[in-house]
Amino acid sequence: MELPKFKYSPNAYQLNVFEKVDGICSCCNENRSLKYTGSFYSRKKPDYICPWCIENGKVAEMFNGVFNDYDGIENYENIDKELLLEVSKCTPSYVSWQQEAWLTHCNEPCKLIDYADTKTIEPLLDELNDDIENNGYEPEMIKKYLSKDGSLVGYLFQCVNCGQHRLHVDCD
């Protein structure tokens, strides 16, 4: 069976939010072998979430929860509600120090490409300059110490319309 695809997280299976574990999905009651281990915000915590129930929105509906906080989507007040719901209810989150942030461009949520380090952003510095200069951290610190799994972590996003790259930075 082919794995679901996520428009706003096309590399979700490489972001360490799914684990190969056999179990029964708390939503669809199907035997599955891929368990979601990332953030899910709800009062009731499902034991096992499969990627199919994330993609079709059933787990968010059943447990009245979200994977990505609506308010964490940049400029959410200017984004079409349908797109916000897709990111918050049908898109897996990612591992972060603080609460996740989802960047936008061209009045739409961007797709999350990968965790980013100094090597990742080096060829994109001109494109990412605004994000590097205006995120609350010292630009030189980002250019020197950004990592994929350390205490200063980068998250590389890309506009689904024009291809512009964006960078979110998070620190422990």
**Spatial order of the strands forming the largest sheet:** 5-6-7
Biggest sheet architecture: 3 strands, antiparallel
Rounded mean pLDDT is 94
The secondary structure category is alpha+beta
- The outline comes out as globular
Stretches where pLDDT falls below 50 for ≥5 residues?
A: none
Helix/strand order: EEHHHEEEHHHEE
Question: How many extended strands?
Answer: 7
As a percent range, the share of strand residues is 15-25%
Rg over CA atoms, rounded to whole Å, is 16 Å
Number of helices: 6
Helix content: 10-25%
- How far apart the termini lie comes to 38 Å
What does this structure look like?
The longest helix has 10 residues, at 81-90. It is globular and about 50 Å long. It has a 3-stranded antiparallel beta sheet with strand order 5-6-7. Strands 1-2 form a two-stranded antiparallel sheet. The protein has a two-stranded antiparallel ribbon with strand order 3-4. Strand 3 and strand 4 form a beta hairpin. The chain contains 6 helices and 7 strands. The model has no long low-confidence stretch (mean pLDDT 94). The chain has 172 residues and is an alpha+beta fold. The protein has helices at 51-55, 58-62, 81-90, 118-121, 125-133, 139-145; strands at 18-24, 31-36, 104-105, 108-109, 111-116, 152-158, 165-171.
